Automatic annotation (TrEMBL):
Annotated GO MF terms: endonuclease activity; nucleoside diphosphate kinase activity
Organism this protein belongs to: Listeria floridensis FSL S10-1187
Every Nucleoside diphosphate kinase-like domain range: 1-138
UniProt entry tagged with the keyword Amino-acid biosynthesis: no
Classification via HAMAP family: NDP_kinase
Identification of the protein by name: Nucleoside diphosphate kinase
Co-factor requirement: Mg(2+)
Highest classification ranks of the organism: Bacteria, Bacillati, Bacillota, Bacilli, Bacillales
Amino acid sequence: MERTYVMVKPDGVARGLTGKIVTRFEEKGLNLVAAKLLQIDLALAEEHYKEHASKPFFKDLISFITSGPVFAMVLEGDDAISIARKMMGATNPLEAVPGTIRADFGMHTNHNIIHGSDSPAAAEREIGLFFKSDELLTSKRADADWL
Ligand code: IDP
Ligand code: MG
């Protein structure tokens, strides 16, 4: 069993895609452990994306991710990290395979709808950045035996 941090970015929230995106993960079989709408401040944005601090797109990325509410979630399931990344699709929506979230809803790399942790270490770090431990709640899905 694994947990991952997934976030609908400001473009996805503003475009009214939050519900559709959450539904995809729920229907797949991932279990929702925590969720909230929040506006990311500068310090949290820079910490979350610190691995990209030296990249040419960093400034635009920080201003985009702080531009409006995001929908933050923790999802749980076997191989949750790689399953969520597969469902998101490639970073550039042009390269994302149809059926993935970025391919189906996104147009450009800089507005690519969704974030998901890319490793167990990143998932642990990002869950800790966005949620307190008492915000993580586990409920048994009715279909748990099949997942
Ligand atoms: P990921 O979100 O698929 O893990 P990363 O390489 O970790 O991709 O990049 C983080 C985010 O930074 C991307 O989701 C995208 O929003 C933005 N980004 C990455 N590369 C570029 C780029 O070349 N131009 C503009 N934005 C980029
Ligand atoms: Mg990444």
